[in-house]
Amino acid sequence: MNIAVFASGRGSNFQAILNALHRGFLPATVTLFVSNNAGAGAFEIARSHNIPALHLSQQQFSSEEAFVTALLATLRDHNVELIALAGYMKMIPVSVIRAYRNKILNVHPALLPAFGGKGMYGPHVHRAVLASGAKVSGATVHLVDEEYDHGPIVLQKAVAVEFSDTPETLAAKVLKIEHEIFPAALKAFAEQRVSIHERIVWIQ
Asked: I need a labelling partner for 194 at 20 to 30 A (CA). Which of 59, 84, 136, 164 fits?
């Protein structure tokens, strides 16, 4: 299966996906890397693995329609079958979601549906978890739909929230889990072991 990875930052989940590929865990190929941020550290990861990398932002275009046309053309040119949002900090346009319905996966640093939605990203999520008094947090891989952090849940894994945790220590624990479950979710799709009924995802 051909995967496109989208990321806006340093790309640790991108690297985790590539690690899974290289050790034979994930039967897929990353054929494209896309970022909305020209300075994203993940570009270096793409370059070091000879993966075609593209800076593509709506700000480069006169309209959202032109941006979507360019993005969809790029995905087709690279024969993309599945999209992995690995720390991508922009909403995917509705036309792209419809073109790749149930083929766009995102990893979120909390146990959705808790601590999701607009503004819930990065350290904001972990601060909110600690402020709530929650005793567990974790990570979620979900399918992307037209709302932030709303699509059907594919995989989740929990981690204990300790009294001594700070947003930084909690983030580190959750990130480790993200690096485990994101490749596992992609593997299930690549091996065609996923069934979707309404908002329920089953993995065989």
From this structure: 136
